[in-house]
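MODEL INPUT / OUTPUT PAIR
PAIR INDEX: 1
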Amino acid sequence: MTADVETRPAAPAARRGSSSGEVGDRGGVRVVLRYVLLVVLGLLFLSPLIFMIVTSFKTRGEAAGIPPSWIPNPFTTQAYESILAAPGTPVLRWFANSLVAALAHAAIVVITSAMAAYALARMEFRGRGVVFGMIIATLFVPPVILVIPNYLIVGELGWLNTLVAVIVPTAASAFGVFFLRQFFLSIPEELEEAARLDGASPLQIFLKVIMPLSRPALATLALLALLTNWNDFLWPVYVLFSPELQTLPAGLSTLQSANSVRYDLLMAGAVIASVPVLILFVFLQRFIIEGVSRSGLKG
């Protein structure tokens, strides 16, 4: 009887230990399954990029083969050599044109959007809400509708067949104004009041207080504007006529004809076009995440 009494209290503890062990095992299994799912999804989203890179190192025949293969056989850099050495496809010149146009476009978008957004976020004037509503309304207008009006304006200004035609017409960004306005509204007004008490002018407050605090949002908008201009295909085709003035997306389209498509050359060109974007994203991803997360806190 004594032995039975002494051993009874140990039973619940043993059950609790086994149940906690089962819970721990289930938690470990869930973590493993979660990471497996993330890896599978990551590979799924990266598969087009991987296939593009793999195809760029294939021969012309293998690149067009069906079914497609994931491992080049043989591995060759012939596509890169052809696309970089051919006199009719000045890829490096197209790359430079796209880089200049995208950087200039992004700079204008950031400057104009920041000034307009600050006025709409902080300055009191009659009709401010109406102006902001009209700017937002332009987001619902399909960009393709503006191709002909913009073409006529660019022609009247004498900008056809120049990089200015690719940089300026779309530099007034309604999205940029909306995005930065939301971010500016999340900045405490007490900081501006303190600067104003120290004798700072509105321009000094904008340049020395608001702009430094808005680096994440500015970097995000700059990257988005750069990508939009970098990937633009339709507008450069309309306004750039000389082969040496083409941007990279428009120039790469000349690699395919009505009768044949050089997939190896297209993929090699696409890899060259993707490198700057991937590098920028790696360096700016921290600012992008912070800018997007803070831009919707107030408004």
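PAIR INDEX: 2
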Amino acid sequence: MRVARAGIASVITSSRRPTYAEVDLVAVRENVARLHSLARSANARVRLGAVVKADAYGHGAERVSAAAALGGADVFFVATLDEAIALRTHLGQLPIVLLGEPDPSLLGETIRHRITPTIHTTKTLTSMIEEVEALSRRDRAQYEPTLQLEVETGLHRLGSEAGEVLIMAQAAQEAGIGVTGIYSHLARADEGEPGEESVLAQVVRLQEVYQGVVGVLEVPPLLHLANTAGLINYPQTGFDLIRLGIGMYGYGVSEVAVRPVLRLVSRVTRLHQLDEASGVSYGHRRWYPAGTSIATIPIGYADGFRRGLFEAGGQVLIRGTRHPLAGVVAMDHLMVAVTDSSVVVGDEVVLIGAQGSEFIGADELATRLSTISYEILTGISDRVPRRYRG
């Protein structure tokens, strides 16, 4: 499939506030290409799948998927059928895999949109077979129904037990449904040495099931296990395909020169000095002396900039300098104690990303809040418009 190169700085939603998330599509393409090259150093034939669920981790699934395809990704993974259907018209014939089992009532729609579901139970497989058998010969040839099977190897979230996987693989083949993948999810790949025993045990379990499946299928399916952490810490888990998630967005790969894709940006809309010693924002949780300059910025926790960042020592960048939050983050605004007398109304404020020589990453915010960068990025709300460049 040919994917058109995106234009510079196009905006997919309008905003009447000076607050937006800037997404660098060149960085997406380069990150994908660089990580694919790393994967191929261990296995020259390995394919790359892009995980674009949750609106591409808050970056915008449609545009990120197109950029990832240009970088070399040729399979796309989502979490919900709505996500899959929204992408179908933008990805042409490229495979879209649903990382989960749809409700049986949705299987007909899944097939008609040429989405590959993951099937976890023989009951749901029976429903899918019934949907396929009800298709005309022409429609069956047009839609080419396929599925993937997830093996329970240790995450204990979803997936089928080994014996059930073999039964379902054979039943799918007999019904003319292609089994295009056998996979599992690593539970502790990002922990380094403490997680090694768990990872290796999962590898053994998955390979044992896969060998059994290969024995009953005419065409060997793709075997996949590694996420970004698996690629970096356990290259032997690469198998036929890497499911690239957080690394594509520029995080979780300190060993490889990837670039964070997203900047969260706003502007100073008010600047004033305290006439007397006072607290700032709700609750007056911290007091400041008279003469302190306070900047107001139109972004708040309803936009995904978390309320707890004040107590956690959160900062923003203005004129390339870090400035601390001056009070609790409100729903629509936050206040900053300005330490640079040259700051003026209209100055750019960077909440995630680079400005000058300074950088505040999503992982820094995550560390302050005792969470992970995934939650920070996916938490940027829909009312923050995404602007694309590259």
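PAIR 2 NOTE: The domain at 262-360 is CATH 2.40.37.10 (Lyase, Ornithine Decarboxylase; Chain A, domain 1).
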